[in-house]
Amino acid sequence: MTDSKTCHVDTLPRIKAAGQSCSECPFRKSNIDRPHFNDQYSQTEFTRLWRSIAVEGKFFGCHLTDADYHPVPQESLDMGYQKPADIGARRECAGSVALIRREMRLAESYPNHATYIKARPAGLSKHAFLVLSKRLKGMMEPPVRFAVKPDESDVIDPMERIDTTSFEWAVNTEGAAAILLAIESVIGSLCECPVCTNHTTAHKARPFLTAEGMAVDADEELHGLLSSMSAAGIQTMDSCINMADALEKLWPERTATLVRAPIGKMNYSSMIRSRAAHIRYSNGPAADAFTRAASAFSGVEVSSSGPVTQIVFQPKHIPALTAAAKR
Q1: According to DSSP H, which parts of 191-242 are helical?
Q2: What does residue 49 show for φ and ψ, rounded to 5 degrees?
Q3: Where are the beta strands (DSSP E) in the chain?
């Protein structure tokens, strides 16, 4: 597995698309529902990808030049997929640009954007058109290069592939995560993934009592810190001494997706890249002092999303964090 600590793709310059899309392009009709270890060609993933472009106006890079975003396990290589190359830049996906070009031409046949988006609700938003306009005028990088191949007839029609009433289309990835966190802060974790359900097979665990009085298992190295937080009335909801290690042992195919989550947001990305520990807990009066103390420690990353706060830290920080919880 690619060492998650080497991920640097978010800092790379963005460059225009190649003249044609690759054979693995997720926007080509020929790749619809193609078997893939990470479900890259599923309807749900296409919806997520196209929404980021059409609604949010985001840049989408060719995965064959996003080496750090897309580590390829041996299983994928055995299925005939190529290993991405690090070219020192992020090249825009030619297939996505071909789809954008078709939507732009379709939009020209309508009197205004409102009529267009009513007829094609999976089409380009006003915001996406604004971003494209700036890029075409040279006001924003990278410049747009429309692909020669595939031609527009060879890329997927989002109106045929996307259910615009679906949750995936209505809420972006970050919004969905925020909703899930809000639910879990009230009723506890809903996760049934291999990392959660089989966690004690990856890391030695000890039971402790949560602030709500529930007996749960936690990684042994975090037992003292979690017990101190619970004694202070802090409601913990998720923790791991090394999420990267747990994924490698229990769910390796999921690492590529989790590690490419946006930096600076509350997710698993930074802890995987740095092979750090983390704890998530509910916000509230009992947690406020601890959060302020954790924020003051050099090397401890603190982020919040709605009712939940997450701290990401190295094992060396555990004594100081434990002391902070006891104050």
Answers
A1: 194-197, 199-202, 223-231
A2: -65, -50
A3: 14-15, 90-91, 205-209, 215-219, 236-240, 277-282, 301-305, 308-313
Return d(Cα 50, Cα 263) in angstroms, integer: 20
Enter the tokens of residue 17: 């698309």
Question: 71: which 2 tokens?
Answer: 């580590």
pTM of the entire predicted model: 0.58
Give the integer Cα–Cα distance in Å for 67 and 72.
9
**Which tokens belong to 70?**
């897309």
Burial 248-261 (b: 16+ CB within 10 A, else e): bbbbebbbbbbbbb
- Contact (Cβ atoms closer than 8 angstroms) between residue 17 and residue 91: yes
CA dist 297 and 261 (Å) reads 24
Q: What is the pLDDT of residues 248-301, one digit of tens each?
A: 999 887 887 787 776 667 888 889 999 999 999 988 899 999 999 999 999 999
Task: Give phi and psi for 6, each to the nearest 5.
Answer: -90, 0
Note the pLDDT tens digit of each residue in 101-111. Answer: 999 999 999 99
